[in-house]
From TrEMBL:
It comes from the Bacteria. GO terms for molecular function: DNA binding; sigma factor activity. This is RNA polymerase sigma-70 factor (Sigma-E family). Belongs to the sigma-70 factor family. ECF subfamily. One of its GO terms (biological process) is DNA-templated transcription initiation.
Length: 181
């Protein structure tokens, strides 16, 4: 099998996984596609060496994380982390109960307020399912920093979501809250 065939097979097998990671990190399907495209272009240029002596999946993931981090630094903005936008999958939200939509919206807003590094740790650890060591290696930080960032991020998220819930912005499915409670 030649290099082009190997690379094509790799993209067919891992492309969707890489796109999902990029969407989780950027919150924007179009931006994620650009990030993955760039990562795959870099990987293709080094395919023979990476495939022979390294781990192409790891290389692609690391390229995606670095590209997202570079975009944050360059644009000084905080991308959304959770999932694909509704316009990419309108059928997904067609029959979602209002309480679930309110909860999802509150979580997205809370994540949007996290600093970029904490958002990336949360996306990799809890959305991507990576271990602390894998997250540290992907982000080029220590395991202790991953633990600390995750701890602080989860504490911030809990606090923000409690504020929203106390203000009546999220419901537990039991219907409207009576006044004065």
């Amino acid at each position: 099998m030649d290099v082009d065939d190997e690379f094509t097979r790799f993209v067919e097998e891992r492309g969707l996984e890489l796109l999902r990671l990029a969407v989780a990190l950027t919150g924007d399907r179009h931006q994620a596609e650009d990030v993955v495209q760039g990562a795959l272009e870099r990987l293709y240029g080094r395919w023979a060496k990476v495939a022979r002596h390294g781990d192409p999946v790891w290389y692609a993931r690391r390229s995606i994380v670095n590209a997202v981090r570079d975009r944050w630094r360059g644009e000084r903005r905080h991308p959304e982390v959770l999932g694909l936008p509704a316009e990419d999958h309108p059928e997904r939200d067609a029959y979602v109960p209002i309480d679930e939509m309110l909860t999802r919206d509150a979580v997205r807003r809370a994540l949007d307020e996290l600093p970029p590094r904490r958002r990336m740790v949360i996306a990799l650890r809890y959305w991507g399912g990576y271990t602390e060591a894998e997250t540290a290696r992907l982000m080029d930080i220590s395991v202790g920093t991953v633990k600390s960032q995750a701890h602080h991020a989860l504490r911030e998220l809990r606090g923000r979501l409690e504020q929203v819930e106390n203000a009546g912005g999220m419901r537990d499915g039991s219907g409207p809250r009576p006044a004065g409670r």
